[in-house]
Amino acid sequence: MGIPSHKSLLLQGLWRVRFM
Questions:
Q1: Count of alpha carbons within 13 Å of 20, Cβ hemisphere only?
Q2: CA-CA distance, 7 to 16, in Å (whole number)?
Q3: How far apart, in whole angstroms, are the C-alpha atoms of residue 20 and residue 1?
Q4: Distances from the Cα of 1 to the Cα of 4, 5, 10, 17, angstroms
Q5: C-alpha–C-alpha distance, residues 11 and 8, integer Å
Q6: Cα-only R_g, the chain
Q7: pTM above 0.85?
Q8: What is the pLDDT of residues 1-20, one digit of tens each?
């Protein structure tokens, strides 16, 4: 719809750092 992939990557990276 209007959700860029780079935003998903950024979210995943932030989540990974938070889980670490």
A1: 6
A2: 14
A3: 31
A4: 9, 11, 18, 27
A5: 5
A6: 9
A7: no
A8: 566 777 888 888 888 887 77
